[in-house]
């Protein structure tokens, strides 16, 4: 994490994965990897969640499906090729993500999370794992005064922002470029470290109890709907 006092650094450079000691970035696009990744995530207490999809510049046309989902823990990032997994193993994909997204034991962090959840439901609305969620925390709602999106918040909390030049790239191309993979992994990883900052600060600054637990009041315990949607109607 950067020291915010070094303005020459924060204004000229961006955060990188190397600053967060990420051990592995794993690409998940087949059933064995999906099962292994799910078992790993089920052992986590807090995860960062983010999604990417190919931009659509044709006016009046439907948005493209969510292409990938990134899930980060403290030391690992798993990038799920949702398009391929949905086409190859929809039942297994649904079962795995139900065990993650429906779990009240795993806190899911996001930024403007409702947007990602809405797009997941639109893209894969026939799978229950992408329609209903438990224990989610939208980091954006903790810092309503912050500007500049997740990058601006990262600069405020962690000392440097994010390079967002890859945001509107082609997320349906395979393989993704190394820059795309690192961009996707970093977005999810930063969520974890912003949360650790908030959680750690509440425990070490001697705040009053009601203030130290303020972030907990933003947790949404249930969101979405278990009602099935058919893709043909979307």
From TrEMBL:
It comes from Zostera marina. GO terms for molecular function: 3'-5' exonuclease activity; nucleic acid binding. GO terms for cellular component: cytoplasm; nucleus. InterPro entries: 3'-5'_exonuclease_dom (IPR002562), Exonuclease_MUT-7-like (IPR052408), RNaseH-like_sf (IPR012337), RNaseH_sf (IPR036397). Residues 25-203 form the 3'-5' exonuclease domain. SUPFAM superfamilies: Ribonuclease H-like (SSF53098). SMART domains: 35EXOc. This is 3'-5' exonuclease domain-containing protein. Gene3D superfamilies: Ribonuclease H-like superfamily/Ribonuclease H. PANTHER family: 3'-5' EXONUCLEASE DOMAIN-CONTAINING PROTEIN, EXONUCLEASE MUT-7 HOMOLOG. GO terms for biological process: nucleobase-containing compound metabolic process.
């Amino acid at each position: 994490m950067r020291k915010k006092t070094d303005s020459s650094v924060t204004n000229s450079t961006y955060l990188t994965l190397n600053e967060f000691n990420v051990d592995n970035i794993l690409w998940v696009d087949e059933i064995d990897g999906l099962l292994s990744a799910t078992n790993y995530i089920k052992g986590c207490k807090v995860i960062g969640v983010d999604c990417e999809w190919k931009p659509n510049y044709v006016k009046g046309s439907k948005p493209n499906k969510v292409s990938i989902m990134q899930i980060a823990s403290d030391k690992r990032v798993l990038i799920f090729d949702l398009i391929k997994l949905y086409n190859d193993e929809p039942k297994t994909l649904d079962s795995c993500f139900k065990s993650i997204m429906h779990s009240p034991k795993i806190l899911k962090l996001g930024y403007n999370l409702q947007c990602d959840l809405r797009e997941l439901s639109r893209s894969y609305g026939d799978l229950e794992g992408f329609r209903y969620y438990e224990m989610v925390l939208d980091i954006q709602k903790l810092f309503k005064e912050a500007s500049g999106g997740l990058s601006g918040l990262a600069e405020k909390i962690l000392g440097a922002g994010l390079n967002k030049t890859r945001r509107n790239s082609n997320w349906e191309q395979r393989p993704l470029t190394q820059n795309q993979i690192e961009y996707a992994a970093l977005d999810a990883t930063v969520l974890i470290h912003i949360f650790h900052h908030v959680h750690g600060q509440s425990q070490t600054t001697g705040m009053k109890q009601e203030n130290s637990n303020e972030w907990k009041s933003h947790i949404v315990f249930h969101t979405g709907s278990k009602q099935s949607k058919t893709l043909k109607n979307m």
